[in-house]
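From the shared-data thread, chain only:
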Amino acid sequence: MNSPADTLSIDIGGTGVKLIVLDSNGLPLCDRQREVTPQPATPSAVLDVIQALISKVPKFDRVSVGFPGVVHDGLVSTAPNLDPEWVGIHLGNQLGAMLMKPVRVANDADVQGFGCIQGQGLEMVLTLGTGMGSSLFINGCLVPNLELAHHRFRKGMTYEEYVGKRALESVGENKWTKRVLRVIENTKMVWNWESMHLGGGNAKLLKTLDLPQNIKLHSNKAGVLGGYGLWQKS
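Structure, as tokens:
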């Protein structure tokens, strides 16, 4: 039987790098720590930020990382909102060597999903931040690296180009909100999900909407709280 373990959960984003330590039940042992993502967001620069933030949190036994791109067994395949140097980097090995702890790395929306889902039926997660993240779960089991954001959606634009941060800044909150609702409607037609979870830094802009009961808004903290689920369910 495995002994209880505390988890350092890291969320690497295009705008911010966040981390927290969670206990053996997935509950926070400290406040979430955050720093602005360095520019350029090279691997060495981001790892330096992580190292500095770790000095502010309790000790831990293992590490979870949510990364904004496609990740296979700790190896980064894409990093559209970070520096191109990330492609081909084995983030799991690099962090493992730096921290001397076991490390699991997954797409950031996949990790955030673990902090949102109920574990029943077909659940979809969309994260609205610098870009747009997506994940899909069947009875709590992850379908990894969905990366819906870079699929074509409308008028030659991808989902991310349609509802990402640049789109919000370009078209304004009212029109952006209508775009998000259109995205939700489209995903429902394609995947027939039973529950939709909306997270990321810009999900708060949807608080005034009268959403159906099966569509839930989540705090941006889900990105780090989901790190516990990455060890429990994958």
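The chain has two domains: 7-111+224-233, 118-218.
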